[in-house]
Write a structure and sequence with these properties.
Length: 125
């Protein structure tokens, strides 16, 4: 069974929040056929620890305000290198570029269908 409509809504909102904080290479995967514990993964990266934390904060705020959703688990926030937010329906991974390159989650989950996400809106800088 593919990712639920709610999972897609949460992913889309999280991706928008991540893009607002200049997240790079934001991808989503439907892992519902491979994992029983969640429907989808969102993966995003940033070039420094501070930006990783800013992305995580923006995603949490967006999902809390728009969907009354709070993560049931939050790991790695102190270090700011790889933060995992578990919302049950979705799991969000925000990684420092170095961790993203080393662990290559998109390679690990390449057999899972990609979920289309909205493109980032260019800023007027």
């Amino acid at each position: 069974m593919p990712a639920s409509d709610r999972a897609i809504e949460l992913l889309t909102a999280a991706a928008e929040a991540a893009h607002d904080k200049k997240a790079e290479n934001v991808l989503a995967f439907d892992v519902s056929e491979q994992l029983a514990i969640t429907d989808a993964f969102l993966v995003a990266s940033a070039s420094n620890d501070r930006q990783v934390r800013a992305i995580v904060d923006a995603v949490e705020e967006k999902l809390r305000i728009d969907f009354d959703a709070k993560p049931v688990r939050r790991e790695g926030a102190r270090e700011g290198r790889w933060v995992l937010l578990d919302y049950l329906e979705i799991v969000i991974h925000v990684q420092h570029d170095e961790e993203r390159s080393f662990y290559s989650l998109e390679r690990l989950w390449r057999d899972c269908p990609a979920i289309p996400l909205p493109s980032p809106i260019p800023s007027a800088e």
